[in-house]
Amino acid sequence: MHLFSSRHKQPALICLLTLLGWAAGSLAGLTPADAADTWTDIIPGVRHLHRVTSMPWNIHVLVVDVTNPHVRVGALIKNESGDSDTLGEITSGMASRHNALAAINGDYFESTGTKNHVPQGICIYDGTYLTQTGFVTNRVSWAMNGATLESFIDVYGTTYPCTPPSWITNSVSGGPRFLRGGAVSIENTSGLPDAYSRQPRTAIGISQNKKTLFLATVDGRQSGFSVGMTCPEFGALLLELGAWDAINFDSGGSTTFYLNGTVRNRPSDGSERRVANAVAVWDTFNQGPNPTVTVGTGFENPPFVTGTINAQDGWSGSGTTCAVQSAEKYGGQQALQVDQGYAQKSITTSSDKVQWIDFRAKRVGGQGSGVCYFGLNSSTLFGGVGFQNGGYINYYSGNTVGGGIMKAAAPYTVGQWYKISIRVDYKNNRYNVYINGRQYAVGVLYKDAASTSGLGFIKFDETGTGSMIVDDVYVGTTRFDFPRTEPDTGTIPLNGYRSFVIKNAASASGWTVVDERNASGDPAAAGSVAVIDVNGIATATGTGSFAVRATDQDGRQDTTGRITVVPSLGVAAVRALGSGSAATLGSAVVTAAFDGFFYASQPDRAAGIRVNSSTPVLMGDLVSAIGTVQDVDGERTLAAATVLQGPAGTPLVPLGMNGREAVNGWQGLDPAGLLATVCGKVTRIEADRFYLNDGAAAGDGLPVLWAGLAPETLGELASVTGPLGASLEGGAWTPALRPRSASDIVNKTP
């Protein structure tokens, strides 16, 4: 029912006997002897009643326990896409687009004018207040407190615009109210269709403890099938089922009951009517197909390393500064900085014609221009949202084909983070803009014509005097608050590691490796390709591929795409490759960490290697790495583009060596890169090194790369521990010991 007009009202004073007669009549029609009831347990916490009576009535009710961890309840809104009546959205479309288990239609809406198909009352979904409404005063609303999971029915806005209470996380309006405190009470009827005629109806009820919801519909206007109900009759039905308070939603031809992928009722128009919003129920343990995530990154390592963004994880970049850096970040360790340049990435088009772009951003170093552009490609833009000179976050609104203007959305403060979300709808070539959860623009027209063209790229562009910092970029086919597991795709070396994280969730309550397949693509036994620990660190146990499923603290789940296990080498085999060879190091133990590089050894201490990388590591960490073998400063090194960190391990015990073994090896041992302890007499001291000789080596002995040893220690005995690197001695590279700290040098003179 979508007419925005006053209907004939009943007299203000209604005869009590007449009201009781309506209630009695409705209850008589609902006696168990007359009703064919079918109850179905849909999921834990959700039951479905389908009731057919001889009235005739065709009734559907969903009874929802919102305290059950399987269940989430919230509002949905239609595609806010402009003025035409064709641009509302059917209830099943909203539900399927958001992977909802069930939904009923919601509020009334204006059917003509500039506010067509926007709700007439307060609408809040997951904390976002829909400011664009065809507001009607004194409309009654269902409202939910997301913190306590309690629901309430009341009038929350008597003027417009209004400021709803901050505790409301989800709200849908309607009217009239027909239950109050466990009794039929017809209220808030002004401007609404007749409450006392039999019509198709949709309603929501709440229990006395405010934590059970009743989502109900009854069909009507169909002789011999279902004749509809009055509001008092609908109230009697919900009272029987346990409701304490209830309101009528938009009804008539709008009445829709959606469950498990199917419209279960029979809409009186013969098909679903496009409506303004809906109330939906999600199964948090099985939300249907996982959302398609085409970008999901916090710019963390892996796969990102500090430095230019160009060629990292599919990004391309250009400009004065366009790099992953660690000085400014929202969370984790790294973020993207764009300064007089750009960073862009190709995006995969989704099949459902809707994609969300979500990111956090801030300006540093002064006001300026830093914008996220998005579109089919770099020459066909759908729009842009970002910081502009003058202190406002603006959005690009198309006015003619191939043209557009920037419009102000909200002021910003330099140095403050903002969560910017964009809902791209290429069914209708429009998009919506949200800042910190609040909607600031609805149905923004594309800048360039691109009918039904899918999102193809995003670009962060900065042309001001300051810098734009970007973090936690997400592009996917569902709401940005859906928990997601990162990385979504990638590789992992055999016997190596990859760390996974869950985003948009306080924590992960469980990690599971699923869908393991061998190198031929056939199903593999559990644990034969990978295993994962309680911290989300996966270890590759065999070649093939797998996926990772994370469960958050509320029971919601997300599963990654395919993670491929690639062949790898041990430390000794990597060292044996020629300079310039690509190499994948499977597993090694960190023995020492320095600025810009670290040393790692095989767990059996048979071989070690220097790894050039700025990735922070600790002694004992298990790591794997992908890079190129190079000879640098006299050492065989692995220049690592990616370092994959595994679980914390136990630091290795150093090998005891004499001077000759350290310099020349002993019985086949290649000591370069290994952690060793060498004892001897201090024979010479220079500004940045000293020399140690135990009589097994010629001349001054083994160089020790350490500055600051006191001259009076000359001639004294010392024990020195560190990885064996190289030092330039007399124009030639020779083995040298690198102490990790002063505690690695122990004076042994009595």
List the SSEs and their pairings.
Elements lengths: L15 H13 L6 E9 L2 E8 L3 E9 L5 E7 L13 H7 L4 E4 L18 E2 L2 E2 L10 E6 L4 E5 L13 E7 L2 E4 L2 E5 L13 E6 L5 E7 L12 H11 L3 E4 L8 E3 L2 E2 L13 E7 L9 E5 L9 E2 L6 E11 L9 E12 L7 E11 L5 E8 L2 E9 L3 E7 L5 E8 L6 E8 L4 E6 L2 E8 L11 E6 L4 E10 L7 E3 L3 E4 L3 E3 L1 E3 L4 E10 L12 E3 L4 E4 L3 E9 L4 E3 L3 E4 L4 H6 L5 E13 L2 E5 L6 E5 L8 E12 L2 E14 L6 E3 L1 H6 L10 E11 L4 E4 L8 E3 L12 E13 L2 E6 L7 E3 L3
Parallel strand pairs: 34-42, 45-47, 48-49
Antiparallel strand pairs: 1-2, 2-3, 3-14, 4-18, 5-16, 5-18, 6-7, 8-9, 8-10, 11-12, 11-15, 13-14, 13-15, 16-17, 19-32, 20-21, 21-22, 22-31, 22-32, 23-28, 23-32, 24-25, 24-31, 25-26, 26-27, 28-29, 29-30, 33-36, 35-39, 37-40, 38-39, 40-41, 40-42, 43-44, 43-46, 44-45, 46-47, 49-50, 49-52, 50-51, ...
Helix pairs in contact: 1-3
Task: Describe the structure in brief.
By secondary structure, the chain is mainly beta.
How does this model look, in words?
This protein is mainly beta and about 750 residues long. The chain folds into five domains: about 15-285, no CATH class; about 295-475, Sandwich (Jelly Rolls), CATH 2.60.120.200; about 485-565, E set domains, domain 4 (Immunoglobulin-like), CATH 2.60.40.1380; about 570-650, Nucleic acid-binding proteins (OB fold (Dihydrolipoamide Acetyltransferase, E2P), Beta Barrel); about 655-745, Nucleic acid-binding proteins (OB fold (Dihydrolipoamide Acetyltransferase, E2P)), CATH 2.40.50.140. Helix content is about 5%, strand content about 45%. The strands form ten sheets. Strands 19, 20, 21, 22, 23, 24, 25, 26, 27, 28, 29, 30, 31 and 32 form a 14-stranded antiparallel sheet that branches. An eight-stranded antiparallel sheet has the order 1-2-3-14-13-15-11-12, with helices on one face. It contains five helices and 54 strands. The longest helix has 13 residues, at about 15-30.
